[in-house]
């Protein structure tokens, strides 16, 4: 959800930026009945605030063993690893990437990480990669068209979105 950079403000606080379309993508997943969670190695108030804003649960921060964290989530949510999509961008993500049904990374991830994924996004972390993943999942599940149609104004006649003339 971020570009990996950390910016400190003058008082030692941490700043992060999030792409607005990534947030909308998360909302679309939720609307389609797909749960979204976060596992991160750092603890950040910015992540906590953004996750709360988007209704993301679970949010596990300051996690050293992401594989173990995934197992806790799978038990809590009564899921199998094959039912999970996970996006990660560094070596610490490999245990999870190697065990889920859809493993995704971003273009600037290390080659070692890329060797464990099914898909590398075209967009960067913090630059729309989450939205790209969202659209891929929803299209594969046949849910994208209906979600897009739900944004069409009633007076436009509903149905599939068409290019304006």
Q: How would you characterize the overall build of this protein?
A:
With 165 residues, the protein is of the alpha/beta class. The chain has one domain: 3-Layer(aba) Sandwich (Rossmann fold), CATH 3.40.50. The chain is 36% helix and 10% strand. The chain is built from 7 helices and 7 strands. It has a 3-stranded parallel sheet, with no helix packed on it. α1 runs parallel beside α6. The N and C termini lie far apart (35 Å). The mean pLDDT is 92.
CATH superfamily, please?
HAD superfamily/HAD-like
Rounded to an integer, what's the Rg over CA atoms? 17 Å
What strand order characterises the main sheet? 5-6-7
Q: What is the domain total for the residues?
A: 1
* Helical stretch tally: 7
Fold-level CATH name: Rossmann fold
Describe this structure in a few short sentences.
By secondary structure, the chain is of the alpha/beta class. The protein contains 7 helices and 7 strands. The chain has helices spanning 20-31, 45-54, 66-77, 94-97, 111-114, 129-140, 144-149; strands at residues 7-8, 14-15, 38-39, 59-60, 85-87, 102-105, 119-120.
